[in-house]
Design a protein that fits this description.
- Two copies of one chain form a homodimer.
- The first copy, chain A, folds into three domains: 10-53, 434 Repressor (Amino-terminal Domain); 67-160 and 296-331, Response regulator (Rossmann fold); 167-294 and 334-353, Response regulator (Rossmann fold).
- The radius of gyration of chain A is 26 Å and the shape is elongated.
- The two termini of chain A are 44 Å apart.
- Chain A is of the alpha/beta class.
- The first copy, chain A, has helices spanning 10-17, 21-28, 36-49, 55-62, 78-93, 107-119, 135-142, 167-180, 196-211, 225-236, 250-262, 296-313, and strands at 67-72, 97-102, 124-127, 148-151, 162-165, 186-189, 217-219, 244-247, 272-276, 290-293, 328-331, 334-336.
- Chain A is built from twelve helices and twelve strands.
- In chain A, the strands form two sheets. A six-stranded parallel sheet of chain A has the order 2-1-3-4-5-11, sandwiched between helices.
- Chains A and B meet through helix 4, helix 5, strand 2, helix 6 and helix 11 of A and helix 4, helix 5, strand 2, helix 6 and helix 11 of B.
- The structure holds a DNA duplex (30 and 30 nucleotides).
DNA sequence: TCCCTGCATGGTAACGTTTCCGGCCCACAA
DNA sequence: TTGTGGGCCGGAAACGTTACCATGCAGGGA
């Protein structure tokens, strides 16, 4: 119960147990060749002084931090916070610490995050790039000497392995689903079109429409409820009144749903709705909203496993950018048919992703 | 563009710039007394070698990590991930790194998390304790030598300052609101009754009921949809059929809403519903759900500010547990009246908390 | 002329750990 | 008796940075 402001050091433990520092180190790290009674003495001293090793010193000496990083746009976003939770768990069971950094999808913050991780000498990290096409990011990543895995969005040029959901196919299938319901005039409300995921989904939508010989109607200027409502208002009037709406992002789906409800537009009677990405109440709301579900857990898990595989593989030799396997993992999405697209409500699928 | 597996060191920069290590250090840390041209040479060398300081060495030398910790039950929980985002932002603008650790509300993981933070010698941390009453936690916290702030849940004995929402009053007001609507038989569905926040809310409910001379009906065995549905089924039959339901937790609110809808019970016609904690679609769903809203942003912000104030105050002298101010910040919650409690739907309040 | 002050710079000792290396002791074989 | 080898242990040199001190130099006042 000795107490002061400073932390006891290994040397103090050694003195207290009347052994050398080497022996204490051996006990801490569970190395062989130390007598049971010596070990007991050391352990008693450790307990007595409340000793906890100083990670900084260990890192400085050993060049291994047992720490990985995660760089995401936002930690408040349920998608990324779920990924973070998964990563955290896997890191923990490998005895690793996870450092999460956010970028708000800004280049500068992303650069800063990578620098921070490098300064902390993390053993590797997972990143959801703000912009897949950024040359700066690519060159930044090229000069990183630890394993990196891209999550949710690949890096152009594939300088790093990536684990992403198949946004293109997911959106294509979803659009086809609407087409199969007999809708002809299907509009698509996007989110930030600058984002890789949104662009891919838009491409999938366009591909499906083109394949069916239908005209694609893309509305890209949706940023909040007002703009979403305005876009929908426009789509509702005139002879080419829209029959179905495909939203590419959670918040847009919610806004569209709200707007349609407020305008008392029957869903799916008058206009059908299908959203990309499942969310908490999508199945509870009336009508329940049909969505494309992303394999969030699997994304996180796969990214983590990939990273740790590289971490183990590269344990001896430092890993030059060239040698990194250019692996691209593409994960399947699934369509959860509920009521809003015109399918009969299926009472068994009240599922939210949680 | 020189490239190899290892990181360049400050000494190598010094050699490259043909100056002493001290000078390089001074340039990096922006200290006075260095000629502009010398500084330029050093900066060129830094850029050329791609030098980034080794944090571990800096920490080892200086005893300051510029790192704070956050210990929460789960990072996937929107409440805590929002807190984390706020903390992250404030830490960043102080030039601090944030390390987030999760406990799943388990004692053992909590202990481990605190140890991890201590080993990393964080300058302070914020914690949402798994169990407010735990003696072990209290003693663990007593021997921590850095500032600590409790978030969302206080620590019994007030060994650390805490920032919590007023769960008791929030629940009391909510219950009164239901009473004011004329409901007599008001049931309360709790979540994990072991949690401080839930207990406080339950107390608030009971207090309001008692004050109105009404009988409190507490159902504490709700853990999933099935149990929630069963509880509601029971409340719906018999002569003492319940008139209003007060749910103390997000997931329970959603389950209750779902159950009532499935059973085609008119809300609020037959049974009114009021939930604790706002959530994304609470205002969009029909009927829109009346909820008690917690000041999430403010909780995080206040905790962060408190922590940094103590961090600055304790910069010189290490802070013994005794000297920590026993500050208790209690933040007000607010009731968002929507349709499910019997209030007329207010079209202006479609608000979700985001 | 000499000393003192103030700026600019460099050498070097820590910080707390791990790890290489070498030493001790004892049993056993020659 | 002496060599030998293996189990146990400790001294001390790193790891990369900061900060204390020393040094050198220029200019100004006595």
């Amino acid at each position: 119960m000795t107490k002061q402001g400073k932390h006891p050091t290994l040397r103090e433990v050694a003195k207290c147990a009347e052994v050398g520092t080497t022996t204490v180190s051996r006990v801490i790290n569970g190395v062989e060749y130390v007598e049971p009674w010596t070990k007991a003495r050391v352990e008693r001293a450790i307990k007595e002084l409340g000793y906890l090793p100083n990670i900084a010193a260990r890192v400085l000496k050993g060049h291994k931090t047992r720490t990985i990083g995660l760089v995401v746009p936002s930690i408040a976003d349920p998608f990324f916070s779920s990924c973070a939770e998964v990563l955290q768990g896997i890191a923990r069971q490998h005895g690793f610490l996870l450092i999460v950094l956010t970028t708000q999808n800004e280049r500068e913050m992303e650069r800063e995050a990578i620098n921070t991780l490098t300064q902390h000498r993390v053993d590797g990290f997972v990143i959801a790039p703000a912009d897949a096409e950024s040359d700066e990011l690519r060159s930044l990543l090229m000069r990183v000497t630890v394993p990196v895995v891209a999550l949710d969005r690949p890096v152009a040029g594939a300088v790093v392995p990536s684990v992403v959901a198949d946004n293109f196919v997911g959106a294509k299938h979803a659009t086809r689903h609407l087409i199969a319901h007999g809708y002809k005039r299907i509009a698509c409300l996007t989110g930030e079109i600058g984002l890789y995921t949104i662009r891919e989904r838009a491409r999938g939508y366009q591909a499906a429409m083109a394949a069916a010989g239908l005209k694609a109607v893309l509305s890209t200027a949706i940023c909040d409820y007002a703009s979403c409502d305005a876009a929908i208002a426009k789509m509702l009037k005139g002879p080419d009144q829209v029959q179905a709406i495909f939203t590419l992002k959670n918040s847009v789906t919610v806004d569209a749903f709200e707007a349609l409800q407020r305008r008392s537009v029957p869903i799916p009677g008058k206009v059908a709705l299908l959203g990309y990405d499942d969310f908490q109440l999508a199945g509870t709301v009336r009508p329940a909203i049909t969505v494309v579900q992303q394999p969030i857990e699997e994304l996180g898990k796969t990214a983590a496993e990939l990273l740790f595989r590289h971490l183990k593989g590269a344990s001896a030799a430092a890993m030059p950018a060239k040698a990194r396997t250019r692996q691209q993992v593409l994960l399947k999405t699934s369509l959860i048919p509920r009521a809003s697209c015109g399918c009969r409500p299926d009472p068994s699928s009240r599922g939210s992703s949680s």
